[in-house]
Amino acid sequence: MAFGDDMIDGYPDGEEPLVFHHKNGEFRNLEVKQYRDLATGKNQPKTGLFRVLVSTKMNRMIFIAMAMCFGLVFVLNLLMNKPNEATVNGVYCNLSALSINDTLYVTTECRISSKSKAYRRNSKPREVSINAVAVDSQNNEFYIGDDLVVVDEPNTVIPSNIEYEKNDLESMEIESIRLTVESGGQSGDLTCKIDNKNKSKKIK
Fold first, then answer.
1. Beta-carbon count within 10 A of 184 CB
2. Given Cys at both, which of 45, 64, 89, 147 links 184, Cβ 3.0 to 4.6 Å?
3. Which whole-number Å values give the CA distances from 150 to 97, 129, 157, 170, in the listed order?
4. Pairing of strands 186-196, 91-100
5. Is the distance from CB of 163 to CB of 64 less than 8 angstroms?
6. How far is CA 177 from CA 91, 162, 191, in A?
7. Which DSSP string do the residues of 60-129 spell out, in sequence order?
8. What is the CB neighbour count within 10 angstroms for residue 90?
């Protein structure tokens, strides 16, 4: 369209310019829903570890499976006692054995928790009888000592230390230490491998 003297801003004299009116965002109604949601932020990616884990059905299934596995491992650790641990008459006992040069050291740590049901029922001192034997590869036992400890203070470790000169064990293929603990008519067995700190003179 050519511009002449009878035209103002490209419009013929006497005609008003066209004016377009629209509401902000009104054109979004004509868009495909997928693009409209993306433009308005409705489909923004979820942030945060937990939100990502439960964002889709597959993620939720994987998250539930992982939670069940971790829960199972935690419960098994609570229910299964280690071979070198036992609880008798409310007293928790932990066994360890150390071989240094010509001496075998067997240590048993005993303690009772002030929060345990056994202590709340009876807070009197407890005597713990300890009997230790060395065990060879044929499961033969050789007596190495005994001890008696009194656990009278809660949350306090009371150690029992049994030392044994290994001369009498040289002819045995000693593999572990087995302990029997007794207290209040209850008993428990503990076993542990010997931690040898002298590789050149280890128990045979």
1. 15
2. 89
3. 21, 9, 11, 33
4. parallel
5. no
6. 20, 12, 6
7. HHHHHHHHHHHHHHHHHHHHSPPTTEEEETTEEEEEEEEEETTEEEEEEEEE--TTSHHHHH--S-EEEE
8. 21
Rg, the chain, Cα only: 39
pLDDT for position 156: 93
**Closest by CA position to 190, among listed 44, 36, 63, 85:** 85
Q: State the Cα–Cα distance between residues 51 and 57, nearest whole angstrom.
A: 12
pLDDT digits (tens, 9 = 90+) for 64-115: 888 888 888 877 766 666 899 999 999 999 999 998 888 899 999 999 998 8
Q: What is the DSSP string of 37-65?
A: HHHHTTTPPP-SHHHHHTSSHHHHHHHHH
pTM of the model: 0.58
| pLDDT tens digits, 141-186 | 889 999 999 999 999 999 999 999 887 676 677 889 999 999 999 9
